[in-house]
Amino acid sequence: MGKHSSIKIWKLYKIEGNKVIRLRQLCPKCGEAFLSKHKNRLYCGKCHYTEFISNKS
Ligand SMILES: [Zn+2]
């Protein structure tokens, strides 16, 4: 389902000043897909791993 787009590693990080901001997080369970961010959770479309994120900014 869906198209596979090539993901470039360097695009996963954004440098701001001298700190690196991680834009996408690799799934800790299967380690093969990136977690997609939803309202209050991160979701792996591959193994369906879900990680809830707290809403403290
Ligand atoms: Zn996964």
Structural description of this entry:
The chain has a domain at 33-57. The model has no long low-confidence stretch (mean pLDDT 81). The protein has strands at residues 13-16, 19-22, 25-26, 34-37, 41-44, 50-52. The protein starts with 12 loop residues before the first strand and ends in a 5-residue tail after the last strand. The strands form two sheets. The protein has a four-stranded antiparallel β-sheet with strand order 3-4-5-6, with no helix packed on it. Strands 1-2 form a two-stranded antiparallel sheet. By secondary structure, it is mainly beta. Helices cover 0% and strands 37% of the residues. Bound molecules: zinc ion. Zinc ion binds at residues 27, 29-30, 33, 44, 46-47, 49.
Summarize the structure.
With 57 residues, the chain is mainly β.
How much is the radius of gyration in Å? 13 Å
Sheet of most strands: 4 strands, antiparallel
Shape: globular
- What is the rounded distance between the termini? 33 Å
Strand portion: 35-45%
What oligomeric assembly is this protein in? single chain
- Compute the number of helices: 0
Number of DSSP-assigned strands: 6
Bound molecules: zinc ion
User: Which strand order do you get reading across the main beta sheet?
Assistant: 3-4-5-6
Order of helices and strands: EEEEEE
Share of residues in helices: under 10%
Mean pLDDT comes to 81
The SS-based structural class is mainly beta
**Uncertain residue segments:** none
